[in-house]
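Objective 1b: paired records.
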Amino acid sequence: MVSKALQSMAKVGDYEIRLLRVFKTVVECGGFSAAEVELNISRSTISVHMSNLEARLKLKLCQRGRSGFALTEEGLTIYNATRQLFSRLAEFRSTVNALHQQMTGEVRILTSDTISLDERCGLDKVLAEFAALAPDVYISFDTAPLGEIERRVINGEADVGFIPHHRDIEGLDFLLMYKDKSLLYCGDRHPLFHEQDAQQLNESLKACKLVHAGVLTSSEASMQLAEMNKAAEAYYYETRATMILSGVYVGFLAEKFAQQWVEQGRMRALLPDTRFYNLQVAAISRRSGPLNKPRDLFIELLTQHIEALE
């Protein structure tokens, strides 16, 4: 049915692309209301666009009403095909841009957690150099969870990602940058905040509620979490720190990130000589694919920065 629907769209022009872009945004926002802000158009206009797309495809793409927004089986297939289409369009634009002497196009950067503000990463300096050398390139810069960054770089939906390096993935290049040491912290409201006896701490920690990132970032981290009472999940450092400061949970944070609360007397590292693990931060990019001069220039500048630090 879906293949016949695609055949019924004899040509895919600018109008059809616009309708598909609206559809993709609605799906990723989870409904019409949330998509209003993202698309900067009214809900009624979105509804008209969706109806026009369904009419052109001769398919029912979604259920919408009081029960909420949900894709039909055909809608899910069209959504996946739309993602592939926009990825191919981005590759085409990158190829064309690479053929021009004056660098244009877009570089899409995703970073995990607080990496972008770490001076060891030097992204502010790299971005300044990049903007000077490629002033006509549009930069898209956002944060996302580790797994999403890997997926989007692999699929060509992002050009460069910054993540904790926890595994090698076929098809990706890894630029190793710096290491972060993560310690186990509790807040000043936690019963263990004033406990100094190491044996008592080790024993008490077995029952303590732990808030963790929800992803396996390294074998060291897995070993530390193995016997702990994983009671809550918060991927980003900011949300995890808030849960630790509540006094209900203990949790691992990058030492550099947690230092601000340690200095204020609001957090304390528990057994820092044994309760820790290291994370290697890396920049990832696709090893193969279409020519992408903006991405290659960005990686080149980043590599120069890292080598200068070393």
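Objective 1b, second protein:
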Amino acid sequence: MSDFETVAATENQAARRGVSGEPGTPGRAGRPDRARSLAGDAWRDLRRNPVFWISLLLVVLVAAMAVAPGLFAANDPRDCVLSRQHAGPSGGAIFGYDFQGCDTFARAVYGARASLLVGALSALITGVIALVVGMLAGYFGGWVDAVLSRVIDIVLGIPLLLAAIVLLKRVSTSGDTVRLFAVILVLALLGWTTAARVVRSSVITAREQDYVAAARMLGAGNGRIMWRHILPNALAPAVVVLTIALGSFIAAEATLSFLGIGLKAPTISWGIDIDAGRVHMRESATPLIVPSTFLALTVLAFIMLGDAIRDAFDPKLR
């Protein structure tokens, strides 16, 4: 038997036993190697990242408090008795009572609903605007890109908090629902620029790929190419930016409510409670510390979660 026939016979025997060192062929257990993808690599990195799990746990906890606050607080946050003013922990109020005799912990728990609602809806509207503007600018280029890029630059140059104060002054005397949606709309209209620039960059990179050229040669229209081929590549970086932006929107809402421009009582918000706690800080510091801690941990959780996802999807960091 020649050397060639010997090698061929050995390879055939190895293949029948399921032993092979070549990628994509059956391994020792007879199972083919799974094709690796960017999403698969990212998920593998996220599973081994403790920062991701800690931040995700905090986000899930805040979301649970916003959806079902009664599971975390035994008392009604609006059940206020002046005789309990600045009283210590008792009757389920683990952090005592504020200057109005309200349960400090219950108000912090129920305050997650308004803050998370403002942040989530602002991020959602921001994502829609950013995807539309970024995809149009990045895909068509030319004068479309020039016009939309100048619009992005103009909005980017407007100070978010200063413009929000000016715009929200006009609805300061409106009802609670009107003020709530006014805050959401103002934050979204002033905070979409960074996400739009990220989407635009991703679309510019994706439109030069071979699969886009192949789809165009097969007769696919611009709408189909943008929806089926460009959008999936633009979503991942947009989600990262919007996750971080969600935390920023929560902090911005608390700042506006603290200044008396955003949400107002009887709406329960961390910013409102921080302002009230600041006024009566000499009598008791707990009503200031508790909502401030909830706010800081929530914002930090979303920023850490966004950073972890960004690092996992960045091939340069592997």
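Confidence is low (pLDDT under 50) at residues 1-35. The two ends are 48 Å apart (CA to CA).
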